[in-house]
Design brief:
- By secondary structure, this protein is mostly beta strands.
- Among the domains are: about 90 residues, Nucleic acid-binding proteins (OB fold (Dihydrolipoamide Acetyltransferase, E2P), Beta Barrel); about 70 residues, OB fold (Dihydrolipoamide Acetyltransferase, E2P) (Beta Barrel), CATH 2.40.50.320.
- Helices cover about 10% and strands about 35% of the residues.
- It has two helices and twelve strands; from the N terminus they run αββββββαββββββ.
- The strands form two sheets. The protein has a six-stranded mixed sheet with strand order 3-2-1-5-6-4, with no helix packed on it. A six-stranded mixed sheet has the order 9-8-7-11-12-10, with no helix packed on it.
- The longest helix has 22 residues.
- The radius of gyration is 44 Å and the shape is extended.
- The N and C termini lie far apart (about 95 Å).
Length: about 280
């Protein structure tokens, strides 16, 4: 008994929901479809360039684009493109080929022999290749009409502004009297200032040196070596960094004997090559 009541209640809820949906008569969002005819001049991965009346237009195509016949048109083929404007981009909804289908297979005579030599007698000069310059995007502080106006149609653009004519300057009636340059007395030559000898500032010579010793401690930015000279031993700290080259390509462990080529600047030693000797 409880199961029958649950099923009937579920049916009542479904019917009421369908009734509410049917009563909601909100108009669907309409969109405008524009059409133009032209010839394919270039292909892209997700676009194609179509030339129409001397102008080039880049049309975006995708998996929603319908082709008639069911194939992508070839270069030089004349087509009719249906598109919608979305954020200023032309997105093709349908591309219809206007070029007739190729004829059926026919039999032709064989080719002439390969030893034949051909020459051209008379004839006109060959025409240049038909090029098509793509349209440039419009750059301005305000969005153009085809981006903001959903009811925009081709040919309803703003009237071109007329260039202002340059105003002609009237010649002045007053005559200019040429001035005679006055003679100036020649200036006496000045004695050249004596050059004072520049003081030479002693600079610390940065020479490449090398040192060999046993690694005592290692840190991310320095290595400490124990250098034995005769009967005395000295601990030397050498700085290392990203520009330091390690041979082999690893940091030496404590106790290994290494040879470091370094450069001394401002009292510090900067190593640029660290080679494990033993």
């Amino acid at each position: 008994m409880f199961g029958k009541c649950a099923v009937s209640a579920l049916l009542v809820i479904i019917c009421s929901a369908l009734g509410v949906v049917s009563l909601d008569d909100r108009p669907a969002l309409a969109y405008r479809i524009c059409t133009f005819k032209g010839m394919i001049v270039d292909h892209g991965w997700r676009s194609m360039t179509v030339r129409s009346n001397g102008q080039c237009a880049e049309v975006n195509v995708g998996w929603r684009t319908k082709y008639i016949p069911n194939r992508r048109p070839c270069l030089g083929e004349r087509v009719a493109v249906d598109f919608i404007l979305e954020d200023g981009y032309m997105k093709a909804t349908k591309v219809v080929s206007l070029t007739p289908h190729p004829p059926s297979v026919q039999c032709y005579p064989p080719a002439p022999p390969s030893s034949a030599v051909c020459r051209t007698v008379g004839g006109d000069a060959t025409e240049g290749r038909d090029t098509c310059v793509p349209a440039r995007p419009s750059c301005s502080t305000r969005p153009p009409a085809w981006v903001t106006d959903p009811n925009w149609s081709p040919g309803r653009g703003a009237a071109p502004r007329k260039a202002a004519k340059p105003s002609a300057k009237k010649p002045s009636k007053e005559k200019k009297i040429a001035k005679v340059p006055e003679e100036r007395p020649e200036a006496e030559p000045k004695e050249a200032p004596k050059e004072t000898p520049k003081e030479t500032i002693p600079k610390e010579e940065a020479r490449q040196k090398s040192i060999t010793g046993e690694v005592v401690s290692s840190s991310p930015k320095s290595l400490s070596l124990r250098v034995i000279e005769g009967e005395t031993a000295e601990v030397v700290n050498v700085k290392v960094g990203l520009k330091t080259k390690f041979i082999p390509f690893r940091r030496p462990a404590v106790g290994e004997k290494v040879r470091i080529d370094y450069r001394q600047e401002n009292g510090d030693k900067f190593g640029y090559t660290v080679q494990v000797v033993q």
